[in-house]
Amino acid sequence: MLKFTYSTVNAGKSANLLMRAYSCSEYKIPFQIFVPEVASARDGINKVISRVGFTQEAISLSDTDSAFEFISQMKDKPQVVFVDEAQFLTKEQVLHFTEIADKMNIPVYAYGLRTDFQGNPFEGSSYMMAWADKIEEIATFSPNGNKATHNQKVHPDGSRNENGGAVEAGFHYAPVTRSEFDLRTHWVRKD
After folding, report:
1. Rounded (10°) angle between helices 91-103 and 123-131
2. CB-based contacts of 179, cutoff 8 Å, min separation 6
3. Per residue of the chain (191 residues), what is the pLDDT tens digit?
4. Distance between CA atoms of 149 and 174, rounded to whole angstroms?
5. What is the C-alpha to C-alpha distance for residues 144 and 165, in angstroms, rounded to an integer?
6. Greatest CA separation for the chain
7. Contact 124, 84 (CB under 8 A)
8. Which of 147, 152, 153, 183 has its CA 20 to 30 A from that of 11?
9. Residue ranges of the alpha helices (H) in the chain?
10. Strand-strand pairing, 31-36 and 59-61
11. Helix, coil or strand: residue 136
12. Which CATH superfamily is domain 2-139 in?
């Protein structure tokens, strides 16, 4: 079983992953956490850290690494696999996680954003949405109290930031509603 849990920023995806991992450790269920290497700019290499301060060791994956190969080479295989920042995975890496679920019969719980700060789907999220057995949203709120659906990049003062790359991990994003995001602004934008 491959499950993809998505949301906007600040919804508690990493905290949810880390709480499930903690539950596994409490019951002596072996688990393994993976995270794309690009997320190390936020959390550091081989780590998952939530905004509420929870932390756990992980295996960082470069664009060419295969989680399936990592698990295949382990003497003691995990009974559960977690993936944080799944939006940064490649199509091939998402396929590797489906193989872990299907060929090894190990449940995979992946967490990530659905879209970038320009409203475009991430490659990893697109294939997670297409190939996951289960898809779940963690709903969160925009600053005005309505349900957030998009991620807005912001400057330190909180104003909107239209610059930079889409593949950029960090805490300089805010959850906003679709109307606050304004899809048309991004749709007609020429980069």
Report:
1. 30
2. none
3. 999 999 998 888 988 999 999 999 999 999 999 999 987 655 556 667 666 666 778 999 999 999 999 999 999 999 999 999 999 999 999 999 999 999 999 999 999 999 988 888 999 999 999 999 999 999 999 888 999 999 888 888 877 887 776 666 555 788 888 888 876 665 544 44
4. 11
5. 26
6. 52
7. no
8. 183
9. 13-26, 40-43, 67-73, 91-103, 123-131, 178-181, 183-187
10. parallel
11. strand
12. P-loop containing nucleotide triphosphate hydrolases (3.40.50.300)
3-class DSSP state for residue 32?
Answer: strand
Question: Which 8-state DSSP code applies to residue 130?
Answer: H
Q: What is the pTM of this model?
A: 0.88
Residue 47: partners with Cβ closer than 8 Å, 6 or more residues away: 35, 40, 55, 56, 57, 58
Which one, of 162, 191, 141, 163, lies nearest residue 8 by Cα?
A: 141
Residues in the chain: 191
Sequence spans of domains, the chain? 2-139
Residue 148 CA to residue 137 CA, distance in Å, equals: 11
Catalytic residues: 85
Token pair of 60 as six digits: 């960082």
